[in-house]
Amino acid sequence: MNPGFSVYGVETGLLEPGDDIVGRVITGLAKTDAGEIHDGDILLFAESPLSTTEGRNIRLTDITPGKEARELAKQYSLDPRIAEIVIAESDEILGGIPGFLLAARGNLVLPNAGVDESNAPDGWVTRLPKDANASAARIRKEILNRTGKEVAVIIIDSRTHAMRLGVSGVAIGCSGILPITDERGKPDLFGHELQVTRRAIADSLASTAELLMGEANEGVPVVLVRGYPYIFAENAVIESIAPDEDLFLGSLMKKE
After folding, report:
1. Nearest to residue 175, comparing CAs of 159, 199, 157, 151?
2. To 10 degrees, the CA torsion angle through 107, 112, 118, 123?
3. DSSP character for 62?
4. Residues sharing a CB contact under 8 Å with residue 173, sequence separation 6 or more, in sequence order
């Protein structure tokens, strides 16, 4: 029987480029009921404030849009400078709707390649961490060096879902935790063998963290989860599937 787990929001204050986010977390935790970091804790970091500390903010006045960016901006009604940044951050532009481009970036398909004007100073935008898995590994190592505690780290973002209004959390990088568990071969309540089910553990934890982080001015960029029985994995990554195997993208591709 699962005894349950606890979740704590960590306030760090406004984060700026070059800030010591791990130090802020340690200080912020001391003001919560969690007190300090324990072995086996899971720490989830919102990508935008983390990206800010990593110097991933960029000023729009420094951007000169090229021909492709101007064409996409006209087609999808967005700032050409944003379009230029999205192109630079993307492997491929898949399409869009007014105000947003749908971009493929690594193993992610996301609006505007994660380029975000919210929670950034006026005239600036924030880009995703250059390598979210590397960021998670770095933070986990820093926590071990400073506290002696072995933890898991997940970098998270918010995403929309097909035909659904609103956003929920999604993991974009991790270290020290197996992000997806395989349920295939296990019986369901009626004894039927599961054929395709895999549990997105990191995504589910990301959505849990989002409830405390919020999307506006809550000022809680980090959440600590204690007592969740995850599977340790040193170098696990967020897995993806090919577009033609995806239920949503694959269905659309077959119509073309």
Report:
1. 151
2. 130
3. G
4. 129, 131, 132, 133, 134, 135, 136, 154, 155, 237, 238
Q: Cα separation of 20 and 9, whole Å?
A: 18
pLDDT of residue 118: 80
- 80-89 and 67-76 helices cross at what angle (nearest 10)? 120
Q: Which residues of the chain have pLDDT under 50?
A: 1
Lookup: tokens for 99 = 């105000």
Predicted TM-score of the model (pTM): 0.87
β-partners of residue 45 are: 155, 222
State the DSSP H helix or E strand holding residue 44, giving kind and residue range, or none if neither.
strand 42-46
The count of other CB atoms within 10 Å of the CB of residue 66 is 13
Please report where in the chains the tokens 């770095």 appear, as a residue: 138
List the structure tokens of 204.
């589910």
DSSP letter at 87?
Answer: H
pLDDT at 155: 96
Q: Is the dihedral of CA 208, 180, 238, 139 positive or negative?
A: positive
Q: How many residues does the chain have?
A: 256
Cα–Cα separations (whole angstroms), residue 190 to 39, 45, 187, 194, 197: 37, 39, 7, 11, 15
Query: Which residues, other chains included, contact 45 with Cβ-Cβ below 8 Å and sequence gap of 6+?
Result: 21, 135, 136, 139, 153, 154, 155, 156, 221, 222
Q: Which amino acid is at 82?
A: I
Residues 224, 12: contact at Cβ < 8 Å? no
User: 72 vs 8, 69, 95, CA distance in Å?
Assistant: 42, 5, 9
pLDDT score recorded for residue 187: 65
> How far apart, in whole angstroms, are the C-alpha atoms of residue 108 and residue 203?
13
Of residues 170, 182, 176, 163, the one with CA closest to residue 133 = 176
